[in-house]
Design goal:
By secondary structure, this protein is of the alpha/beta class. It has helices at 3-8, 28-41, 57-69, 86-98, 123-133, 154-166, 180-192, 209-219, 225-233, 239-255, 269-280, and strands spanning 13-18, 46-48, 75-80, 103-107, 138-143, 169-174, 198-203, 260-264. Helices cover 47% and strands 15% of the residues. The relative contact order is 0.13. It binds flavin-adenine dinucleotide (FAD).
């Protein structure tokens, strides 16, 4: 089954994000992770992240190619606009095509002091270029149900969503959120604007409190009171509580008509296994 078939089907989608090694050639850990994901979790597809600040085209495409060739897992490669020239993009896309990657999650990337933008400033421009020059790729994009931290307001995020759809993005994955009310509210607002699109909810299982701090500072996600209480109570060992919270979020989303979820696994297969098994029961 191709990713397009999965997205067009009627089953609740359960996909998983993994990150590649930091350095070229160090594939042992990701091979182990992908093998265990395939055997123990069987996600509908995996997506492989792109290094922060535009570093890591090779490790992303190497890890994606392992997922496809060795484990026969449908795979999406992330790609970011930051520090990316048109030449480098062409080279990366040709290599991905050669390795059998047919789907891309097209992003801008987070901006740091040393970030540079050469040919593409935003995800929509990058998507438009890829659509025009490499039309065979299926394009996915990010959306922010609580609003992107740099956006003026949610209306700007809805404008950007419309632009991304116009530029050829066919499917979206949301930034993590811990309160489903934000997801429902965003979908209602989008529907009122006449925006119809395919989307998976991004769910981050938090199994230790340090990880929560990092995730929140990057995503700006709101922490609901019941979740804050859990983190205070189980600070040292959040595994059970963190998995249970994610399971409840996912079951609620499924019951309320969401198309699917994308699990930010942080390469933690035990967490993904616990959550996917519970949801499939
Ligand atoms: P954009 O869509 O470009 O939006 C960024 C900001 O600019 C927003 O405030 C938006 O409102 C505004 N904007 C958008 N388009 C325009 C325009 N045309 N003109 C003016 N303003 C505009 N980062 C990585 O480095 N590697 C990864 O692998 C990665 N994977 C991710 C996966 C998911 C599912 C998500 C949600 C995020 C991921 N990120 C990743 C983080 C992402 O790069 C950041 O959230 C980044 O800050 C924004 O990316 P974007 O593609 O949404 O940017």
């Amino acid at each position: 089954m191709t990713i397009r078939d999965i997205l067009n089907g009627n089953n609740f989608i359960m996909s998983a994000e993994v990150f590649p090694p930091k350095r070229n050639g160090e594939l042992e850990n990701i091979i182990r992770t992908l093998r265990r994901l395939k055997e123990d979790v069987a996600p509908d597809y995996v997506s492989v992240t792109y290094g922060a600040n535009g570093k890591g085209a090779t490790t992303t495409s190497d890890a994606a190619s392992v997922a496809i060739d060795a484990f026969d897992i449908e795979t999406v490669a992330h790609i970011t606009a930051v520090n990316l020239t048109r030449d480098k993009l062409d080279e990366t896309l040709q290599s991905l095509q050669h390795k059998g990657v047919g789907s891309l999650l097209v992003l801008r990337g987070d901006v740091r002091d040393d970030s540079r933008f050469y040919d593409f400033w935003h995800a929509d421009e990058l998507a438009a270029y890829i659509k025009a020059h490499y039309p065979r790729f299926l394009l996915m994009g990010a959306l922010y149900v609580e609003g992107h931290p740099e956006s003026r307001d949610i209306e700007q995020d809805l404008d950007v969503l419309a632009q991304k759809i116009d530029c050829g993005i066919e499917h979206f994955v949301t930034q993590m959120f811990f309160d489903n009310a934000y997801y429902y509210d965003f979908m209602d607002r989008a529907a009122r604007r006449g925006l119809h699109f395919s989307v998976e909810a991004g769910i981050m299982p938090v199994t230790n409190v340090k990880q929560l701090g990092r995730s929140i500072s990057l995503s700006g996600a709101t922490i609901p009171d019941d979740f804050a209480k859990l983190t205070a109570q189980y600070e040292d060992d959040m595994f059970d509580a963190g998995c249970d919270y994610a399971i409840r979020q996912i079951l609620d989303l499924r019951q309320n008509g969401a198309k699917g979820v994308h699990l930010y696994t942080m390469n933690n297969v035990a967490t993904a296994k616990r959550i996917f098994e519970a949801v499939r029961k």
